[in-house]
Amino acid sequence: MHDMEIFDFRRLPVHGGSMRISVAKKGSKHKVSAKLKECLQNELNRKINSRSLYDDFANRVYSNTKKLIECLKAYKAEGKRVVGYGASAKGNVLLNFCQITPDLVEYVVDSIPYKQWRYTPGTHLPVYPEQKLEEDHPDYILLLAWNFQEEILEKQALFRKRGGRFIVAVPEVKVLN
Questions:
Q1: pTM for the model
Q2: What are residue 12's DSSP bridge partners?
Q3: Domain count of the chain?
Q4: How far is it between the farthest Cα atoms of the chain?
Q5: pLDDT interval class at 96 (50, 70, 90)
Q6: Taking a C-beta distance cutoff of 8 angstroms, is the pair 89, 97 a contact?
Q7: Residues spanned by the domain of 98
């Protein structure tokens, strides 16, 4: 539409693997890199342009959503308390897609001051400073900033030492001791 083309890209580890693309007007001095040609051929070989690939992905998403909700409801039925960790954009997408409300996840903690004392968009979970975990002692924490899993698990070693567990929902639901 704008007479532009991608001529190069770079893989970034953030968000589970992103790409930064370089774009220019068609016919510019920029030539399509060999790395981009190889990437495009790899995508064709993997049939990334097929409908079935995306249908399979959608099925995995819905199955995982069902597992997460079942897990949260089971903990609630057992009288366990679940809170969230990380008021991230991706976490809010998960909360809203799964329609997770305060009856399943009581609140969210986050280290960023401008997110604290507000509510998550759509699901209206209150957002508090991380220190609330030290006072409150929930049973489970739903990890909403899964791209920082190792850092958060390390930071919350005391929570885990006290018997608290983390629920990781992406790429699949699992509970970490």
A1: 0.84
A2: 18
A3: 2
A4: 64
A5: very high
A6: no
A7: 60-176
